[in-house]
């Protein structure tokens, strides 16, 4: 990280505040799914997967739910949908799936992430994000939101969970 990139971004949530948001989301997930024996947390590769890992850790601590973790990998930067790959095979039929990502902006990434789950019968699919920017272009909403943030289209929100020394939410 260069000095200029550190100066040009403003911290919105500290590491502690981000952790509190994740824990609160875990409690909400448990409240909405307490009758389930288990759920699947599907994290989108990158900070979304780091968020999913933290959710699974919190759920394991606060509830008897068997929270299984999978990573969704696909190219978020192409305009057409690329294949969505799981990091390992897991039976998702008749399960509760929670797709986790760091930021909900237009909804395109989360819409792409739904693709493999629409091919099998499921109990329900929910979405959890740390930050919702509310610039939705796709009919996607988050069931669990850590922080709603009004931004301009030119601003960039960065969630850092994978580097402990920089953990938090930043606005560039």
UniProtKB/TrEMBL annotation:
Protein's UniProt keywords contain Transferase: yes
EC number: 2.4.2.9
The keyword Transferase is assigned to this record: yes
Annotated keywords: Glycosyltransferase, Transferase
Top-level taxon in the UniProt lineage: Bacteria
InterPro entries, alphabetized: PRTase-like, PRTase_dom, PyrR_bifunctional
Residue ranges annotated for the Phosphoribosyltransferase domain, each copy included: 10-148
A single GO molecular function term of this UniProt record: uracil phosphoribosyltransferase activity
CDD domains on file: PRTases_typeI
Name under which the protein is recorded: Pyrimidine operon attenuation protein/uracil phosphoribosyltransferase
Lineage of source species: Bacteria, Pseudomonadati, Bacteroidota, Cytophagia, Cytophagales
């Amino acid at each position: 990280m260069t000095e200029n990139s550190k100066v040009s971004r403003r911290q919105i949530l500290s590491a502690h505040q981000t952790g509190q948001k994740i824990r609160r989301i875990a409690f909400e997930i448990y409240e909405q799914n307490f009758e389930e024996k288990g759920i699947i947390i599907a994290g989108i590769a990158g900070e979304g997967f780091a968020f999913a890992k933290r959710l699974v850790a919190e759920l394991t601590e606060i509830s008897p739910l068997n929270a299984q973790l999978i990573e969704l990998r696909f190219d978020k930067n192409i305009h057409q949908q690329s294949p969505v790959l799981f990091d390992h095979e897991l039976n998702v039929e008749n399960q509760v799936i929670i797709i986790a990502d760091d930021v909900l902006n237009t909804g395109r990434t989360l819409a792409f992430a739904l693709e493999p789950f629409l091919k099998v019968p499921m109990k329900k699919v929910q979405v959890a994000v740390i930050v919702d920017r509310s610039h939705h272009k796709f009919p996607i909403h988050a069931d669990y939101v850590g922080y709603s943030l009004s931004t301009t289209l030119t601003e960039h929100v960065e969630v850092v969970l994978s580097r402990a020394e920089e953990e938090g939410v930043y606005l560039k």
